């Protein structure tokens, strides 16, 4: 069976559509994510420490939870923020706390490290506008 007109039209539409992008969840303008601990400049002995994450004017919810004005924490270690139009990567520099955790035990090697928090929605997408902490520096001895 031949499809003289339909197949080229479908193929052309598929090629012209471009990649699909996920819809970003909105966040209140006054939403803030911040470090409870550690503080900027903290010296950590031994490399293992608790990161305690705070959030104002939004709620924490596990990944996959479709409730307005909620999200879950992501800890960025020694990296810049990812593109705000793509899901937050999941690797050793982008730790996901998709169960809704507000604290986590982290281990880092000796040296200076940067830490930053970025709230992600149910699909690990940054909100619009992004809810991101300032970048802090810690030193592990």
Strand content: 35-45%
Q: What number is the mean pLDDT? A: 88
Q: Strand pairing plus helix content: what structural class?
A: mainly beta
CATH architecture: Sandwich
State the oligomer. single chain
- Work out the helix count: 1
Shape: elongated
Tell me the name of the CATH homologous superfamily: Immunoglobulins
Please write the string of helix (H) and strand (E) elements.
HEEEEEEEEE
The level-1 CATH class: Mainly Beta
Overall number of domains: 1
Radius of gyration over C-alpha positions, nearest whole angstrom:
20 Å
- The total strand number stands at 9
Biggest sheet, in brief?
6 strands, mixed
**Percentage of residues in helical conformation:** under 10%
N-to-C terminal Cα separation, in Å? 71 Å
What fold name stands as the CATH topology? Immunoglobulin-like
Low-confidence stretches: 1-20
Describe this structure in words.
The chain has 141 residues and is mostly beta strands. The protein has one domain (22-140): Immunoglobulin-like. It is built from one helix and nine strands. The chain has one helix at 6-17; strands at 32-37, 43-44, 48-56, 59-60, 70-77, 94-96, 103-107, 111-120, 136-140. The strands form two sheets. Strands 2, 4, 5, 6, 8 and 9 form a six-stranded mixed sheet that branches. The longest helix has 12 residues, at 6-17. The radius of gyration is 20 Å and the shape is elongated. The model is unreliable at 1-20 (pLDDT under 50).
């Amino acid at each position: 069976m031949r499809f003289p007109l339909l197949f080229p039209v479908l193929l052309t539409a598929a090629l012209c559509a471009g990649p699909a992008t996920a819809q970003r969840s909105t966040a209140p303008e006054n939403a803030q994510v911040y470090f409870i601990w550690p503080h900027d400049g903290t010296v950590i002995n031994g490399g293992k420490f608790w990161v305690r994450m705070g959030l104002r004017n939004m709620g924490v919810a596990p990944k996959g939870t479709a409730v307005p004005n909620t999200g879950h924490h992501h800890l960025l270690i020694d990296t810049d923020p990812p593109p705000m139009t793509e899901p937050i990567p999941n690797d050793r520099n982008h730790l996901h706390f998709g169960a809704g955790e507000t604290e986590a035990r982290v281990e880092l090697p000796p040296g200076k490290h940067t830490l930053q928090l970025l709230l992600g929605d149910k699909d690990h997408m940054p909100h619009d506008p992004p809810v991101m902490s300032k970048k802090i520096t810690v030193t592990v001895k």
